Amino acid sequence: MWSTTAYAGLRAIFPILIVAHAATIAAATAPNNVVYLARTENEPLIDIAFPTLKEVYGRVGISVVERNAPGERAVVMVNSGEVYGDVMHVGGLENHYPNLIRIPVAIIQFDAVAFTSGKDILITGWSGLAQHQTCIRRGIKAIEFAMAGQKNVTVVSSYQQIFSMLKAGRCDIAVLPRNAWLEVERLNITGLRSMEPPLQSWPLYHYVHKSHADIVPILTRTLLSMDKAGQLTTRQDAFWKHVEDVRRAYSN
């Protein structure tokens, strides 16, 4: 029979044993305790997600390093196993890139909105884009998937290219994440406008290559703990407030 004191002692050390076990698995998954995560370059949404993932991995003794790449290239790097994981993409990416495993806790939500060169254009959902010349950024998979099969779509590699095409009249509309306003600020572009309501909203998730499947439960539990504590919501709310402040300052 366990004494009350012994039982209490076991309860006290049990969480420590769980953390130690998680760290052991994580160390085996990342032998040098350093992993590389691909990220889409010049994408403000990644700028909020990466510090969160640094904390998540750090809790099990792993350091993470960013590998910047163009959007499509970033996903290919993960799918091929060249890097450990992808900082963040839309859910369902694993259906198109079978070597990816999604960590099933959303890090942030994002909205796809229509940007114009200052005009008010009435758009009723994705089908309403059919009559307009539309630009999108390569590698933003949620928008790529939503636009699949649409005509009059130009896919380019950078926000700067898209904004230049809008200003020059080569696109009527650019469909971008709402946070593209932060790139408007960085590039100091004026005269743009974004339409409301958003065309669609999606949760975004962290992915790892399937060879690192052992770490999935560990990352899942850690993210769930942060979400329950309100940390993810607090960071998300602060980020979107900043985006809205920039929109008001720079929109036409």
Query: What are the low-pLDDT stretches, counting only 5+ consecutive residues below 50?
Result: 1-22
Supply the helix-strand structural class: alpha/beta
Q: Report on the biggest sheet.
A: 10 strands, mixed
- Tell me how many strands there are: 10
At the third CATH level, what is the topology name of the largest domain? Answer: D-Maltodextrin-Binding Protein, domain 2
CATH C-level class of the largest domain: Alpha Beta
Q: What is the molecular shape?
A: globular
List the total number of helices: 8
Number of domains: 2
Give the proportion of residues in helices: 40-55%
For the record, the CATH architecture of the largest domain stands as 3-Layer(aba) Sandwich
Mean pLDDT value? 87
CATH 4th-level superfamily of the largest domain: Periplasmic binding protein-like II
What is the rounded distance between the termini? 75 Å
Radius of gyration: 21 Å
- Give the SSE order as H and E letters: HEHEHEEEEHEHEHEEHH
Report the portion of residues in β strands.
15-25%
Describe the overall structure.
The protein folds into 2 domains: 4-109 and 203-249, Periplasmic binding protein-like II (D-Maltodextrin-Binding Protein, domain 2, 3-Layer(aba) Sandwich); 111-201, Periplasmic binding protein-like II (D-Maltodextrin-Binding Protein, domain 2, 3-Layer(aba) Sandwich), CATH 3.40.190.10. With 252 residues, the chain is α/β, with parallel strands linked by helices. Helix 2 (44-58) links the parallel strand 1 and strand 2. Helix 6 (181-187) packs across helix 8 (231-250). It starts with a helix and ends with a helix. Strands 1, 2, 3, 4, 5, 6, 7, 8, 9 and 10 form a 10-stranded mixed beta sheet that branches. It has helices at 4-29, 44-58, 71-80, 141-147, 159-168, 181-187, 216-228, 231-250; strands at residues 34-40, 63-69, 85-90, 100-102, 108-116, 134-137, 153-156, 173-177, 193-194, 200-209.
